[in-house]
Amino acid sequence: MSTLFGLPVALDALIRVLIIVGVMTVVVMGLIYIERKVLARFQQRLGPTRTGPMGLLQSVADALKLVAKEDVRPTNADPWVFELAPFLVFVPTFLGFVVVPFALAWSVRDLDLGLFYILAVSSVNIIGWVMAGWASDNRYAMLGALRAVAQSISYELPLVMALIAVAMVADSLNISEIVRGQAVVPNIVWQPLPFLMFFICMLAEMNRPPFDIPVGESEVVGGPYVEYSGIRWSMFFLAEYASMFIMALLGAAVFLGGSAWPLGEQLGLPWQILLTVVKAGAIIFVVIWTRASFPRLRIDQLMSFSWKLLLPVSFAQIMVNGLILVYDLPYGMSHTLLAVCSAAGVLFVASAINRSVTRPRPRPVLISRSEAAR
Amino acid sequence: MTTEGAAPERSLSGTIWSEVDRALSGITASAERAVLDVIVSIPRDEVVRGLKALKADEALAFDYLRCLTCVDNEAEGMDVVYHLYSTTKRHNVTVKVHLDANDLFVDTATTVWRAANWYEREAAEMFGVRFRGHPDPRTLLMPEDMTDTFPLRKDHPLAEIEVLQGEGIAWGVEE
Amino acid sequence: MTNALQPNSNHEFEVQDIMINMGPQHPATHGVFRMVLAVDGEIVRDLIPHIGYMHRGAEKLSETMDFRQGIGFMDRTEYLAQFNAELAYVMAVEKLMDIEVPERAQWIRMILCELNRLSSHFMFTGAFGADAGVFGTSFIYAFRWREEILDLFEEITGDRLMYAYFRPGGLAWEVTDNFVERVHQVLALSRQGIKDVDGLVTNNEIFKARTQGVGVLTKEQAIDWGTTGPVLRASGVAMDVRRDEPYLFYDQVEFDIPVGQNGDVYDRWCLRIEEMRQSVRIVEQCLTKLQPGPIQPERMPRMLRTPPGEVYIRTEAPRGEFGIYMVSKGGNRPHRLKVRSSCFANLQSLRDMSIGQYVADAVLALGSMDIVLCEVDR
Fold first, then answer.
1. Does the pTM exceed 0.90?
2. Burial profile A30-59: b = 16 or more Cβ within 10 angstroms, e = fewer
3. Residues of C contacting chain B (CB within 8 angstroms)
4. Looking at this predicted complex, what is its ipTM?
5. What residue segments make up the domains of chain A, in order of their start?
6. Which domains does chain C have, with CATH numbers?
7. pLDDT single digits (tens) A21-35
């Protein structure tokens, strides 16, 4: 394990931790600003324009306001659980930052089980939500927390399966190796279905629309976070945007070729960073686009979508991958087969979604006014 | 039964009154022609029977209750007014029931149309008319604890409301 | 309907329903409205609506206002379909006094009422999209097009929301000189707006999954509860006051009435979108028939005194049948003014719509009724 500039291990670890915290804070504040601006443009409005040039200091202003708020806690809230819940949501997300690569040699730690590590660590925030909902001593919070947990667990499984499918094709769980393996063709070409599932499950894990029923503003106002104010609430929010950033980076690395495609290794470090940023930015843009466009799914529809459609399809994808890869076929043939089967899977999912809501039903009838013969 | 003394006399011939009269056989009903509709007056004790007959009759088929309200005529008592409509035959009629000022009660019409539920609750709390047999006689628009004031009665002045609502607020009261 | 909620506890284990109180302050309740739900997990077992938070004594106050002062009050009662409310009141006075309204005033009234229907339905599409979860986008889209209509109203009447423009006998003052061109502009923009809102939401799979089969009201239930407007028409009853008892000049224009077959929330949405298109069609026909002329009859008394009599005027407001029952004992004030508001009748059926469905569906059912609390409570 090499250390930065040959420093002792402890100091090196400390520096890396500081890098994580520093980068993440800046990135999250930037992401909040970008989301507000992009969402506003989708909705034909402007977004923040007054705080700083083009509203760039809006996140800073928000952060200052939240820090200055009074720390309100319900009288009957369980004190320890109430205090610790934001940490349990917030810290695991930051832990996921450790393995995500920015450039071919640039990640905080290059773990051999990187994919496994990030999946394991990111599911700890479920406990945080339950703690938040329970300790708030509030019916709405409890309802929201239960919904959040049900949703998270349901969408964890297809997420893991989708990433395993890609790991099978790339033959490694080390994220940097997966990135290097895409130097010629990104994995999305061979495995479009896992990318689709990854995207959907990513939205569900982050409680983003259309899967934001736990924090549905028009029903359970705020969900498990309803009793939190000020800094504590901002930690939940920070966690959501941090996980959006990390998942986008992961998606860019595992599916879109990360910093290796199209000419990463040849063109050096700045080009690699640019590639990463552009790809992660594209994923984030589509996430925000989705938020602006879709209504919210109801909890039972959400769960049945995951358990009845996504999970069986992901199992099928893994089996097909295994079948194809076990025979040691030449590269071109095996990968073409993979691509074809996966694309068929995408079409199947799309048609299943469409057919489930387009049942034939009598359309409204137009009766002309002059048909009013008394 | 009530005549508002409408200045131009309008005849009842050719209106729905003949069929209504036939449907209300056995009930002493009278009618007059108002500006747009026919107003049929039914005695208080026959109200539910009459309304059910109007709903069940095949030629009339008044299956839709448009509106139910009261009119306070001060010394002459109150009228409970029902506006009925038929979605199939597309005709309508107004039914009036006269109540004397000292016994303001009438049977509920919720057994005939469920729509009468909230209208009767509102009429009861605004006018003090008791609808016997109503399944849910709580106040609708008024606060739950103000069950002894009837704002829409003519003898309830407008300005006293402020006095009733705020202790010690004396404006609006004429000594 | 009983006084208290009936929690359901006939399972093997002693299970009690949670009581959830939604409102009076709640983002989903469209105003100051309170629903108490008895919920078993996520399924609604009982629902009791509480209204009266916006009761301002409109009917009592109307008895103290003469026939011109009362017009402004009707605006405040139905603040999204103001012209329809004013129209009902003004028509009641005209019928009692037997006043004949000049043709031009009637055509302009018709145009304004239909434009008001458009703006009210735009508001519905925006707010309902927000209920369903497309928060922001559908709201802003719809309101942008609604602003164009409101701009036109401001040019004519001087006010964006409380117009007080109709008078017994006709209109208060003549419309602007470029009225016809402006209405054509607004219609073109509204067509674009209907396409926008329709394209954003109607065929969206998630929206369909959320609204089809939700909040169903059968035909018998709808008639028995006295529902009206798009709620009644979605359940299969072809009742529209403009067609059955035509007022203004609705018997001289061609339009269609959409009638749904399923009685659910999706039908009510589609119905209102279709009604918007029909409104555009009606306004176009009215514009071709608009001729110059007077807008008030030649001899209008300065003090309006009605002969004794009573009348029940019904109009088709965007939310349903808006009725004014006016009793006059002579004099210049109504003896009794009863406002038959469409939302009051529709709200009674909320319980039947929501029992057995999820909490989220109850919210959508309430949204699909498009209530205006001022009208419910008066």
1. no
2. ebbbbbbbbbbebbeeebbeeeeeebebbb
3. 1-3, 51-52, 55, 57, 59-61, 64, 95-96, 223-226, 237, 239, 244-245, 307-314, 321, 323, 325, 327, 329, 335-336, 338, 340, 344-345, 347-348, 377-378
4. 0.86
5. 1-68, 72-355
6. 18-377 (1.10.645.10)
7. 888 888 888 899 999
